[in-house]
Amino acid sequence: MANAAEHQQIALVGTWTSIPDAPLEQKPDHPGEGLYRLKVNADGTLTPLDVIKMKSPSWIVKSQDCRFAYTTNEENAGAVTALSIDKSGQVKVLNAVDSHGQQPTHATISPDGKFLFVANYSVAKGGAGVSVFPIHHDGKLGEQVQHFAFDHGTGAVKGRQDGGHAHSTTFTHDGKYLYAADLGGDKLHAYRYHANKAEPLEADTAHDVTFTAGSGPRHMVFSPDGKHAYVTTEMAGEIAVFTVKDDHLDRSNTVKLNTENNSAEYRSGGGIILSPNGKYVIAANRGSDNKLLVFKIEADGQLGKPVSYKANGIEPRAFSFDGSGKYLYVTNVFTNNISLFHFDEKSGELKAAGDAAKISTPTDIKFFN
Question: What's this model's pTM, rounded to 2 decimal places?
Answer without folding.
Answer: 0.96
